[in-house]
Amino acid sequence: MAQPTAGTAGGSSQPEVPTTVAAGQVSLLQRLGEDGPMRSLSVERNGAWQCVDCAGDGVTSRGTLAPELTERLQVLLANPKLADETDQARRYRTTCIDALTSSLITSTGLITSQDCPGEELTPVAGEILLLLTQATPAEVKG
User: Fold this and answer.
1) SS3 85
2) Whole-model pTM?
3) Which residues, other chains included, contact 25 with Cβ-Cβ below 8 Å and sequence gap of 6+?
4) How confident is the model over 70-121, as pLDDT tens digits?
5) How far is CA 102 from CA 7, 9, 70, 122, in A?
6) Helices (DSSP H) in the chain: which residue ranges?
7) Which residues, other chains included, contact 36 with Cβ-Cβ below 8 Å and sequence gap of 6+?
8) Strands 48-52 and 39-43: what pairing?
9) Beta bridge partner(s), residue 116
10) Contact predicate 102/109, CB 8 Å
11) What distance in Å separates the CA atoms of residue 4 and residue 61, rounded to the nearest whole number?
């Protein structure tokens, strides 16, 4: 389980939105609907994470993934099948209105999914998303 540290209240500034990450790192951006606040989670190679507004309360939380979760995340991020799950490889387009949109930024590329019926499942990215949402304040559903 993650060990969170004390959060700090975020000001009115928007979280920095990464566009690329190094190998072994991952960022998760989530937004509920088109007008919802952006929630941002970044995880380093060593399992240290920072989550900005993950609970929608303006708080920034920090923690570290348990060693076995860090190891599992690294195995998933190194999986060659992840390249087939990128938005570019799938020619992904969002289709639902007012759904939770989750975007994983990996060194392989951007992988987007929505919490809506009929959404195409991405096995490796889906497992990364589940791991991150179970071990941090980020959410898997809107």
Assistant:
1) helix
2) 0.82
3) 42, 43, 44, 45, 77, 106, 107
4) 999 999 999 999 999 999 999 998 888 889 999 999 999 999 999 988 888 8
5) 22, 23, 20, 12
6) 67-77, 87-90, 123-135
7) none
8) antiparallel
9) none
10) no
11) 7
